[in-house]
Write a structure and sequence with these properties.
Low-confidence stretches: none
Shape: globular
Strand order of the largest sheet: 6-5-4-3-7
Number of strands: 11
Radius of gyration: 27 Å
Distance between the termini: 67 Å
Structural class: alpha+beta
Largest sheet: 5 strands, antiparallel
Mean pLDDT: 85
Strand content: 15-25%
Length: about 325
């Protein structure tokens, strides 16, 4: 990126946040702090009222606004792709809000970019995958408003395995998408601790006027959670998989602590660090057992053997037929 484009991008970033730290600018553009200070001086010399405070960051003087920016061809394509993803992976309200924002984006595009967006409109499709679950109604919209406004929500929730709904007063601190589902981490007044709630199990979510207490951020929560998990030792497991079976394992292997893999002739040696070897990794291994073998540890071999024994006990008839050559 040349200096002119970088200074323009810095101006846009100054408009996007109330305060922008010099280190954040240095990290984004891969430049030194000295270069950041020089670019800020250039912006000030151009007549832009930038206010800076040591140890805090930079901000534009309240009320100052730059003219609408023009989006590049690549940025317009990125927005269009994001719109398609929003329609498949978020709730109805967020999809509508993003579509409304896209009309404003399209309004400032040049003629050639508008033509390009119209051409691509029907040529980008996000296919639904089995297991993808969309949040009901306006759940994500309510959660985001609660997080932004620091308000509690009244939640009607049905936990996994329960047949009855429960009412909770919760204070959401963030949302995330994992394993084909949306989740929120929230302080639960019923349990008096942080809890994880899955969006598709929320029957309803209503924003209240109750202000949240001072809570940790989602980033800090995960940092603390990671430190807490570090107190529990992870078990190393190594399995050898025939190469023809690895393509069926790629999507799910990360759920079970996948760390690395090494190709060895017709086999791939996969290494895992697992917290739930018996209940997690062992059960998943059985799906591909005819194409795999356990290298280590013995605990994993024992867990698989126990599961197989339970299967034989539950299905004795099929086992007898198989042993007699009937299958």
């Amino acid at each position: 990126m040349n200096r002119f484009d970088r200074i323009t991008a810095i101006l846009i970033q100054l408009q996007s946040k109330r305060v922008v730290k010099a280190q954040d600018l240095a990290d984004r553009f891969g430049i030194s702090l000295r270069t950041v200070y020089r670019d800020i001086r250039s912006i000030e010399e151009a007549g832009v009222p930038v206010y800076g405070e040591a140890g805090i960051g930079y901000s534009l003087v309240e009320g100052y606004r730059l003219p609408p920016v023009m989006f590049t061809r690549e940025e317009a394509m990125a927005f269009l792709t994001a719109e398609k993803l929003m329609a498949k992976f978020t709730d109805n309200n967020l999809t509508e809000h993003f579509s409304s924002a896209m009309f404003k984006v399209r309004a400032v595009l040049r003629g050639t970019e508008k033509d390009m967006v119209e051409t691509l409109e029907d040529n980008i499709i996000v296919m639904e995958r089995k297991g993808d679950v969309l949040p009901p109604g306006n759940i994500l919209d309510v959660l985001l408003k609660a997080i932004a406004d620091k308000k509690a929500i009244k939640l009607v929730y049905r936990a996994f395995g329960n047949e009855e709904n429960s009412e909770r007063l919760v204070e959401p601190i963030g949302i995330f998408h994992e394993h084909n589902n949306w989740y929120t981490i929230a302080w639960c007044h019923l349990r008096e601790s942080y809890r994880q709630f899955r969006a598709d199990r929320m029957i309803s979510a209503q924003l209240t006027g109750i202000s949240q207490q001072e809570r940790t951020s989602l980033k800090e929560y995960y940092k603390q959670d990671k430190e807490a998990r570090a107190a529990f030792p992870l078990q190393k497991a190594v399995i050898r998989v025939h190469r023809e079976a690895t393509k069926y394992m790629q999507e799910q292997k990360h759920y079970f602590g996948f760390v690395s893999e090494r190709v060895d002739g017709d086999y791939v040696e996969m290494t895992f660090l697992s917290m739930s070897m018996e209940e997690g990794l062992a059960r998943w291994f059985l799906m591909f057992a005819d194409k795999c073998e356990v290298v280590e540890p013995q605990e994993l071999k024992d867990a698989i053997a126990q599961l197989l024994e339970k299967i034989v006990q539950r299905h004795p008839l099929q086992n007898e037929i198989a042993s007699s050559g009937g299958l």
